[in-house]
Amino acid sequence: xxxxxxxxVPLRPHRPCYxxxxxxxxxxxxxxxxPETKRRLATMASExxxxxxxxxxxxxxxxxxxxxxxxxxxxxxxxxxxxGPPAASRTxxxxxxxxxxxxxxxxxxxxxxxxxxxxxxxxxGIILLEGTDLPTPAPLLDAVLAQVxxxxxxxxxxxxxxxxxxxxxRASTSETRHGGSASHGLLKDALRHHAQVRSxxxxxxxxxxxxxxxxxxxxxxNSLQALNGEGTPCGAILAGTPDLISVLRRAEATWYLxxxxxxxxxxxxSIGNTDCALAIGAPLxxxxxEYSQSALMEAVRWCSGNPYFTQALGAAAxxxxxxxxxxxxxxxxxxxxxxxxxxxxxxxxxxAWQNLDELGLTGCxxxxxxxxxxxxxxxxxxxxxxxVQSAVNSGVRNPPLDFKPTLSEQEAHTxxxxxxxxxxxxxxxxxxxxxALPSFFDFVEERYRDxxxxxxxxxxxxxxxxxxxxxxxxxxxxxxDDSSSP
Length: 486
Ligand SMILES: Nc1ncnc2c1ncn2[C@@H]1O[C@H](COP(=O)(O)OP(=O)(O)OP(=O)(O)O)[C@@H](O)[C@H]1O
Ligand SMILES: [Mg+2]
Description:
It contains 21 helices and seven strands. By secondary structure, the protein is α/β, with parallel strands linked by helices. Strand 3 (201-207), helix 7 and strand 4 form a beta-alpha-beta unit.
């Protein structure tokens, strides 16, 4: 099977590797559409089918996956290592993809899922989970056992140690579900059975992992670590918003973040403007849509490097062009494409606004936006933790009229990470921090300045007066000295 794959662009640098070599991204178009995709899009255009090409609002695979070479390399390396000889040392095969909303974490997991479907010949058995499935560790056991035929009751003598039979593991699972806690010993047994019965190496694939409990992630990581140390290769790919790092920090597996963190933590952040333009322009070209390249290069700035927004802009352009007899897309400011795009973007902003508003945190967003604009004006300086926390604190102190924030200042900070609006690409609690979607914070500013949004507008003066509590008046370079951060 592997030999029939036609990688369109080699995603990986050459590196020594034992066979078999896994390339989950081999069939994924990254810098150019393949001839068959171009033909498919041209046929769709000739039949008047313009919907479903771009993928805003879902985790559908985009026509062109741009700017993800590093992430693809890291995932392929993990799969290679998992398929390689059992590690002599206690190595864990687990990577964590972390990044803002809409950056493309789920798409990367979907590519792994496609490459490793149930009947894959690679020898990896994937166990799919969502973070919300894991309020406790027990569902981990359920998920593993669900993939093992129920008739199997062998005990594991070969690896010694705990050596529970599958029937016993199942029994413990139901006990666990009724109030007990799943130990990593139980999960180890279940995984060992899974590996033996299926002759596959188990790989957890967990999306939205920031919604999992620290307990569940701790049990998972400790089991994987122990099993790999015993010579049973198994692994995990976790993906979630920036809050996932704090959840991992609270898991009883601190070694996971302490050691070898560069290899384990994979940031999935913004993509460059040229890549954004490619993700939009190549499918439009294939569909015979006319547009000005320079206008597109200007328009991609509206996307702030967020992959979700490239799909929204592409979809807006196709929608407008499909309604034009001459099949043209005008990317100019104020033209129909920009209007359609802005309405799609507003939908996304409204969602984020509501998530904050429920908790009385829109004032924090207003203050973070003010901080961001200050930093931009000071040549795009990154923010440190002290500045970010002070801006959030100021928002908590100055909530909208009649709102009472229910979260503490620290919880409010974490909540922005949970929503994927605030991000430290280095995954360090000290930052530097970035606002994940600066245009959302412009939207917040507009609301606060609009007198029709009375409850918010009435507090704007107080928020502005409070700015010196987080925007330094002295030299910006001094402000970045983070020595006093917590
Ligand atoms: N590298 C990329 N190039 C082009 N489009 C992309 C890329 N990555 C993701 N997309 C598109 O962006 C949209 C958002 O991607 P995805 O749902 O994977 O993001 P996410 O990080 O999982 O977001 P969330 O945190 O909201 O779950 C999808 O519609 C996808 O098609
Ligand atoms: Mg996702």
